[in-house]
What does this fold into?
Amino acid sequence: MDAVAVGTSRNRAARHHRCGRSSPPQIRASVHNAFVHGKSSNRRSAPYWLYLLECEGGVYYAGIALDVEQRFLQHACGLGARFTRARPPMRVLAAREFPSKGDALRAELQLKALPRSRKLAFFEGAERA
It folds into this structure.
């Protein structure tokens, strides 16, 4: 796929498609794969999720949310963080469930302190635990 600068009409058209009522299949598959391979628990209260996105230019973005798919779509539509407005997300790389917002925020700080080369391993290590 050709690289497209942010703000070009082709990029706007792609963003428009991503912001429609239903998620394109590749987005649903990306979110599904992150959940299938992420750590889950059987808690009754709504869990928070730590997620890792791959954005345009190959850069990573980490955040927390109650619903990763909804948050991904917000980022893709330009309604998320300033970082993802400048570099729209392409896919969810990984997601991990936490029992509370505080736990998710602490994990996000740990993840952001890691070098890029160890960020995916952070999620893979959770699967073995």
